[in-house]
Design goal:
Blueprint: E1 20-26, H1 39-55, H2 63-71, H3 75-95, H4 104-116, H5 121-137, H6 147-160, H7 186-192, H8 197-212, H9 216-219, E2 227-229, E3 235-239, E4 251-255, H10 257-270, E5 279-286, E6 322-332, H11 335-351, H12 359-368, H13 373-384, H14 389-395, H15 402-407, H16 417-425
Parallel strand pairs: 1-6
Antiparallel strand pairs: 2-3, 3-4, 5-6
């Protein structure tokens, strides 16, 4: 059995404060507030309305093709398509005229409008790709492939630059590689997780997300039966579907014994044995109230209150204890909830002086954190430990090494061929 690391001490729940009552209930006993309606259906309706408005009265939508295009895409891709088309529709409202099908001059004007609004080249490139999809839906040739549009996009990229803003990395902390981690680390966030039921969940979520490098869309879909424990305390996580595996061939990721201790602590405390692993938790708190002596009701002159037969006169009032009730929901966390957990835990780590950041540096570091930070941090730690881009891309389920190199471009030079050779002869 591997030795327990110092960071694994917080896997047991802290006992309640003296005089406090803590209860755990299920959603069946105390239902949580319902979320908004079906967002996927709302996006389909939004896309349909936008298309109808853009093509005007003379056009028509191939409904079957429209439905099949959406079925072939992941929910995140449908969301991106809706956002991209809404951006183009806003431009058409300002520029007037029929928006679809568009000619090359209109697409160039849209590109210039995007540049004036200081959109990133990667975002504009994705929106042109969405417009190409829409033109295919209408059975019209896409103007985005025209030579003048390609030149306009090339000029835009040259003037603005193509460097993309990267999520702030959440590396593990001390002990990995020769390049020390700076700012927020996974170790600091785990230490900042309180030993309450939500704290146990958050620590398990952060630890599992780092070990596996899951995207947030994959993380919120982890089910209890996806985790297969091993004899050495580790586990293998099944990833049924991912961004690069829309057909569901499946993949696997390894979970460390430390992560499994945290996952087991969360599951035991929440009695969560099936369904989504990471769930919503509602918190209901009541304040303590001191005992109040019984008070007599004022009576008119000459009148006396009479109690019913058998009733007892109250002689002593009991105090009300402070209580915290955790209601464990049935639905999984949303990506927005995961983002909130990361930022909230980072702020708690800063309040507890677990990171050496203050002022504007602290604000910038928290603003840079996102649901992708743990994936970026794991990639950088792998580069720092001397791994090559190929095995890293395979471990994090990328189809090519380009994204891995982009995430680890600051640390990759320390493990490339030149560094390995020079370290031997010029170390």
């Amino acid at each position: 059995m591997p030795a327990k690391s110092p960071s694994a001490r917080s896997v047991t729940a802290m006992p309640p404060a003296l005089g406090e009552l803590v209860m755990v209930r299920t959603a069946a006993e105390a239902p949580l507030p319902r979320r908004r309606g079906d967002r996927a259906a709302n996006r389909v309706a939004q896309l349909t309305a936008l298309l109808v408005a853009l093509i005007g009265q003379g056009g028509a939508i191939d409904r079957l093709a429209f439905r099949k295009i959406l079925e072939a895409r992941a929910p995140a891709s449908v969301k991106a398509l809706a956002n991209d088309l809404a951006c183009y529709a806003a431009f058409c409202t300002r520029a007037r005229g029929i928006g679809l099908p568009a000619d090359e001059a209109r697409i160039v004007a849209y590109l210039e409008d995007c540049e004036r609004r200081q959109l990133k080249p990667a975002t504009v490139g994705r929106r042109l790709a969405s417009l190409a999809v829409v033109h295919g839906l209408l059975g019209a040739p896409s103007p985005t492939r025209g030579a003048i549009v390609r030149d306009a996009l090339r000029g835009f990229r040259r003037r603005v630059g193509v460097a993309q803003r990267q999520a702030g990395p959440l590396r593990f902390g001390a002990g990995i590689g020769t390049e020390p981690a700076k700012g927020f680390t996974l170790s600091a966030l785990l230490q900042a997780c309180p030993r309450t039921l939500p704290g146990l969940r958050d620590a398990a979520l952060l630890s599992l997300a780092y070990d596996t490098g899951l995207r947030v869309s994959e993380l919120v879909k982890v089910m209890c039966h996806h985790v297969a424990s091993q004899s050495d305390g580790s586990a293998v996580l099944t990833v049924p579907r991912s961004k690069t595996d829309q057909e569901g061939q499946g993949a696997y990721a390894w979970l460390s014994p430390d992560t499994m201790r945290r996952v087991s602590a969360w599951r035991n405390a929440s009695a969560n044995s099936e369904g989504p692993l990471f769930r919503r938790i509602g918190v209901i708190r009541t304040k303590a109230r001191e005992a109040e002596p019984p008070r007599s009701l004022p009576a008119p002159p000459g009148f006396q209150w009479r109690l019913p037969a058998g009733a007892k006169v109250p002689t002593e009032a009991k105090p009300v204890l402070a209580s915290t009730t955790y209601v464990i929901g049935e639905a999984p966390l949303t990506p927005a909830a995961v983002r909130l957990i990361i930022k909230r835990t980072a702020m708690r780590a800063a309040d507890e002086h677990l990171v050496n950041l203050v002022g504007k540096d602290l604000d910038a570091a928290i603003a840079a954190l996102s649901t992708h930070s743990l994936r970026v941090g794991l990639t950088q730690d792998l580069f720092a430990s001397g791994e090559d881009a190929g095995p890293i891309a395979q471990a994090l389920r990328w189809t090519s090494t380009s994204t891995a190199l982009r995430y680890g471009r600051k640390l990759a030079p320390a493990s490339n061929a030149t560094a390995r050779m020079l370290r031997e002869v010029r170390g």
